[in-house]
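Structure in, sequence out. Go:
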C-alpha cells in the first residue's frame, strides 16, 4: 500500500506541471461559458504566463526524477 501511495504522490507534480504548461503555455484554452472567468484567466496568463510555464516544466522534471528514484531505490 505504501508503494502505491508513493507512486500517486510522485504523479501529482507531473500532472500539475502538465496542467501549467498546457494552459499557461498557450497550448490549450480553458473551456468556459463565463466571459468574466476567461478574462481573469487571460489577465493571469499575461502577467504570470512565462513563470507558470517554467514552473510547470520544473514540476514535471521533479516528478519524473522522484518517480524514477522510487523505482530504483
Amino acid at each position: 500500500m505504501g508503494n502505491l501511495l508513493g507512486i500517486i504522490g510522485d504523479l501529482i507534480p507531473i500532472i500539475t506541471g502538465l496542467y501549467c504548461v498546457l494552459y499557461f503555455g498557450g497550448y490549450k484554452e480553458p473551456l468556459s461559458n463565463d466571459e468574466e472567468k476567461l478574462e481573469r484567466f487571460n489577465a493571469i496568463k499575461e502577467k504570470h504566463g512565462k513563470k507558470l510555464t517554467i514552473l510547470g516544466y520544473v514540476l514535471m522534471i521533479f516528478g519524473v526524477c522522484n518517480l524514477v528514484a522510487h523505482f530504483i531505490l
